[in-house]
Write a structure and sequence with these properties.
The structure is a single chain. This protein has 312 residues and is an alpha/beta fold. It has a single domain (40-311), classed as 3-Layer(aba) Sandwich (Rossmann fold), CATH 3.40.50. The chain is built from eleven helices and seven strands. The chain has helices at 2-33, 41-45, 57-68, 80-94, 112-119, 146-174, 195-215, 247-250, 255-264, 276-286, 290-308, and strands spanning 48-52, 72-77, 98-102, 124-129, 178-182, 221-225, 271-272. The protein has a seven-stranded parallel sheet, sandwiched between helices. α3 (57-68) crosses α9 (255-264). The radius of gyration is 20 Å and the shape is globular. The termini are far apart.
Length: 312
Amino acid sequence: MFATLFTVIGALSVASWLYENLRNSVVLLIHRFKVSREDSLVQKYGPWAVITGGSDGIGKAYAHYLAQKGMKVLLVARNAAKLSNVAQEITEKYGVECRFAVADFSKGEQIFPQLEQELAPFDIGILVNNVGVISEKPILLERMEKSLLWNLINVNVGAATLLCNIVIPQMKRNKRGLIVNISSMAAFSPTPYLNVYAATKAYITSFSHALHEELKPYGIECQTVSPGFVHTSMTEYLAPTEGSQTPLSRRLLKVNDFIRYAGYTLGKVSTTCGHWSHGIQVAILKMLPETLRLRIFTRLYTELLSEFSNSS
C-alpha cells in the first residue's frame, strides 16, 4: 500500500515538474514551426510601448527590440540626458517615433499624478515594468541606509504596481494589451544579504501571476520575466576583470543574448526566465526543497559578501 502511495506521489511530482518546466519550451517550439501568419505586435497590442528604466540595460534592450518590431516607444526613467540620447538613437536606427518622460520612482507616490497625465494621450499597447534598484553589493540589513530601503520599496514594488493601475483601464477599453513585469531568479528563494531585493522580486512574481489571471477575461496579457545574472549596471561588480574570472562572472549573460530570446517570448508565454540558460538553472532549483535552495543561496551570497563587502 505504501509503495503504491509513494509511486503515485512520485509520478505526480515528476509530472508536475515536467509540466512546469517544459510547457513553455513546447509552446515556443509550436510557435516557431507555425506556418500561419501572426499579427505584428502593433496589430496585436497597439502602437505604443512604455518602458520604465528604459535608458539602460534590459529596459534599453526591450526598447530597441520593440522599436525594431515597428512599435513607437515611450521611455521612462530619471536621467533626462540619457533618455534623450537613447530616444534619438532609436529614432535614427529604426525610423520610429520615440519619446521620453522623466520620472524618479524613488520619490514614491508624489510622481504618479504627473506621470499619469503624461501617459494619458498615448494608445499604450505594451507596458514593460523594468525599472529596479539593488544594493550595490551584498550587505547586511542593518548596514543598509534607510534611503536605500525606501528606494527598493518605491522603485521595485511601487513603480510596477502603480503603472499597472494607470494603464489597465485604457487597455480594458481597447480589449487588448500586454504587460511585461521584470522579476528575478532571486524571487525563487529567500536570499540572505540580498533579502530586501529578493523579497521585492517575490512580490513582483506573485503580483504578476495573479494579474495574469485577473486580466485574461479582458483580452489583456501579463508576462512575468525572471532572469538570472545579466550583465547590466546593476551587476557590474560581478563583471570579470582582465585576468580574473569567477564562476559567477563567467555566467553573466550579455544583454543582447538575453533580449534575443526574451523578445521572442512576447505574446507567446506568460512566464519565462528570458533566456534558455536561466530556464535550466530555475528548473534545477525547482527540483530542490526550499530549505536546500535557501542553503545554496546563503552559501553563494555569503561568499559574495566576503568578497565584495567590507562587512563580516
